[in-house]
Amino acid sequence: MAPPRKQQQNNTRSALSEQLSKLASAFPRENTRALKGGKASILHTARDAADVRLEEIQERAQKAFENVRRRDGRFDAFGSKLFYTANTNGVGMFGDDAEGEALEGYQKQNHREKLDAKENEKLNKIIRQFLRLFASTCGKIFGGDEDEATAKDETLREEAADGAHIFEYLIRRFKVNVYNVDDVIASLLPYHGTNQFVKVVQTCNFENAKKFEWMRGVKESGAKVPREYLAKRVAKDKAFLTYICDSAVECCNGQSNNDFNATNGTTSASSVSHSFYVVLMIESLDWMKRIESAHLQRFLTYLEPGLHQKASSEHYAGCLMLIAALCAKTTFTEAFSVALLEGVSKGARAPLVREAMQTLLVLCSSQKIETIPDRTFKHFVKIDNASSHVAEICDKYGTASDCLVNPLLEALGKFCGTHENYEKTLMEALEKIELTEPRAKKLVCSLARSDKSDEVKRKSIERALRAADQRFPKSTAEAVDSFLRGLERRKEKRAHDERRRRLQEKQEIDGKEKKKKKVNNGSSSSEESDEEEEDDEDDDEDDDKTNAEEDRMMIDEETRKKEEEKLKEEEEQLRLDFESASFLREALAGSASGPIENKKLGNRSLAAALDHPTASIRENATQRLIDLHVEFIEKKAKDKDNTLLPPPGLEKGGFLADALCRRCSDDDPTVAALALGTPSLSMLTKNRTSLFEAISHRLETARELSSRSNERDANKVADIERRVCKKAYATLLRQMSGDRIDDDDDDELR
Fold first, then answer.
1. What is the DSSP letter of 461?
2. Which SS3 state, helix, strand or coil, does residue 654 take?
3. Which residues contact 190 (CB under 8 A, 6 or more apart)?
4. Looking at CB atoms within 10 Å, which of 334, 338, 434, 718 has the fewest?
5. How confident is the model over 468-489, as pLDDT tens digits?
6. Phi and psi at residue 502, in whole multiples of 5°?
7. Distance (Å, whole) CA 289 – CA 274
8. H helices then E strands: how many in the chain?
């Protein structure tokens, strides 16, 4: 039986309604009610625009497009895509077949609704690309209605008029204000503070907007959009933040023109648009209560391509600014910090090397970075004149630059022997950077512990150590002594830990023996007691205790194994550090910075021994210093070319010479007499005034001590002090007479 005619009609209507709903969702209608019988326009009112024919608008836009195309050849690709007429010989956007001609006819009659989804998407893509290029080149002109330069310059006024006619054409012919609302607002968003931007927004149908639906208030109020409002929006709307980051990347990688065979190839967008997005990202940080990992992930979509070596300088500069702003607002994870360090070092290029160095400094300072990763260091060394830029940072920021310089010196010391370029960079750095004590400690420790597996590496490290000692003997001596002091402390701690471990083992053994005896006594007493009183509960308790004891023993065994492994590692590191100390001793042999392995002086540098609180150590150090000085005098006498240089620190006025001058006024008479008897003392002291002051101070001390009462101990002290006075006067006379008086023989004083 056939269905009733009425039922068939209902089914047909339902099918048609469903198809119409699908078409409506694919092609949203223009909201014509707001225009009240007029047409959307940025040049005329809605009613006046209704009286202007499309052919007139297209003719003016065609002329304006030709002007724009003459100024920028990248627009040539859009001539046959968007700006064609019925008389145009171009193939149009859909091809040259019959179907393409029919579809072009629809578009010429301004019926986008009759295009299917695929064709509309193709047209949308072309319009999107054109709007981006238009904004990158003509946006400032189009948005320059309040620019005084635009108002006064006739050429700029003409260019602004061309931009307005082109946009008027896009609105009338392709209804970009209806079907491409997001693309229109996005392309002109950098000019949010202009009247023209407000005019464009007021023509838009926000029922079709997805990303910028919140701009509806601008359409209703007609007020300009302050950047502060946009920054707040970025801070609270992660989707908008994602859009801003993606748009900034698109501005830099030239996606707006990649699909066309432009004569200039791929191109980057204008600095105006890119700068706007970067500033907006930075300003949004001030409105974020807390920077979350979700925010960093979105910023990373902009940072990652911008820190690549192939990125444009404009993109790289934007990344540097954003990283510095982020450092001031939050603390990164270690992995994120390492990635940023590597990216900044890898992407550094002229003319932004100085800015890259400052960004590295901000990163190291704010994120408390103590060690430069190996990959970051290897990229850093490839920077042209890296040492000069580091020196510039040091001169500008002083000790505040140590957070970057110290890790760099440590890395240079670590890799010094592995490649000649690393050694060269380190040598250049030592020539240009002041090696303060903190920097010297990092460098010397790193050099001492670096790989010395072959002779080439060993010689390279020795050259670096000697260069540091020659240029900065005092800092190098302090660094060597600090390394040795730390070594001695660790050795003492290791011995203390070993004694404590043995004591604990002994206590554990004694405890086990006592417990065993107690268990044996308990078992014997329990055998004597009535065995019938034992029940299942007692057995369960004994089992629980046994299990608990076994668990505790297993935990103790694991802890003991971990401690043993840790002790082995510490012992191995201690052994390697003692080998490093031996290497320092060989590399700096004959230098004041070299470690002295001597029972009397201890395992320390000569410079540290000269000021040691123990008089006997000061005496032996002073004697060794005199021996070095005498050895140099003998070698210099044989040097016919007169090119021999004194050991570091022993040059006239050097820090070791000053130390010897201090020993001339030493409180201990033996040390003072030894220093006062130094041959050719005037060759070492900076000037005679400092030597005379030291001698004068020692004479006052000797006079005070020798004038004490005639008690037995006092008489002995007075006798020794009188001999010191004799030595001091002899030295004084020798200096005044030009070293013509022979040294007094004072064996009794020794």
1. H
2. coil
3. 135, 139, 143, 272, 273, 276, 277
4. 334
5. 988 888 888 888 888 888 888 8
6. -65, -40
7. 25
8. 32, 2
